[in-house]
Amino acid sequence: MTDTNTISRDEIIDLISAHADADRVPKKFKVITDTSDFFRVDYNDVVVLNNIPYWVKRYEKEGRFGIDDQPKYWVRRAIDLTSGATKILKLVFHEKFETKIGDIAITCFRSPKKEARILDLVADHERFMHGTWCLDRAGNNIRILDFIYGRSIDNIITDQGQDHHDYFHNHFPALLHDFIELVKAISFLHDHGEKHGDIRRDHIIWDRKRRLYRWIDFDYNYMHGESMFGFDLHGLGNILTFLVGRGDILVADLHKHQRALFDTLWGEDLNISYKNRVANLAKIFPYIPESLNRILLHFSQGATIFYETTHQMLDDLAVAQSDVARQTGRSQ
Description:
Layout: H1 9-19, E1 31-32, E2 46-49, E3 52-64, E4 67-80, E5 86-90, E6 96-101, E7 104-110, H2 112-121, E8 131-135, E9 141-146, H3 153-157, H4 164-170, H5 172-191, E10 204-207, E11 212-215, E12 220-222, H6 230-245, H7 251-257, H8 259-262, H9 290-297, H10 310-328
Helix pairs in contact: 5-6, 5-10, 9-10
């Protein structure tokens, strides 16, 4: 998977001409084989990897830490000029930050090698993004990802149902089925000694072509203590809480609009990491089955027992799924 390039600039121009109108063929562009300085990669440049030219277009964006649409200059959408397929090029960017679960500090960092390793592992698994990787001329590990056409799960569920009762009884059972399949996919990683590393709701995409939800973006790694998979499990708990609540149930909103419910809350009812979010959702929506709410309480301030493996969580989810089906009359 090392880089070997022999394609000429004239050949690249011919390939661009085959995929674009004459007036869209750029008069000036760089042919890049060393992506070390990803800020040098501009719109209409061509990145050549393993002798395949990728015509660079926009950079991708992502919301993180409450900030929407942060540009990711190291993640570029591009056209594979040999096939016309849209790809995502993930260039090397070393980032490190610290987060907390309760009082436990966790150091997270980007690892291109780890993401490349997982891409090889999940190449035949339908619940993950797919792609390849190679080293550019300078030895940078570049991931070349198949573009998934679809929306993230958080942008989908808030449109479902007239209200929470309608959503929970008519839409949530199918979402719970999909969520369980996604947890099984993470279990597949864990069983192979790997972590996703950045489990968030906007990293689950509904693939319109395949008609299923898929995990994306697993280049984060984290330094773990006794629990290798604890951070992944915490992410799964946050997503499940979001799905059950049809969005985040915020303390400030309850205080402003539903004061009677707000007055029933204690500190132990709140999310272990996000103290402005309610984890004990049965206090807000009393029709939530106890077995389902018990799972959510594993991720609350009042939790004394935590999941150590996805298999433990899946066992509880199976019971909750049966109870949800019994209550709603819908298995999925």
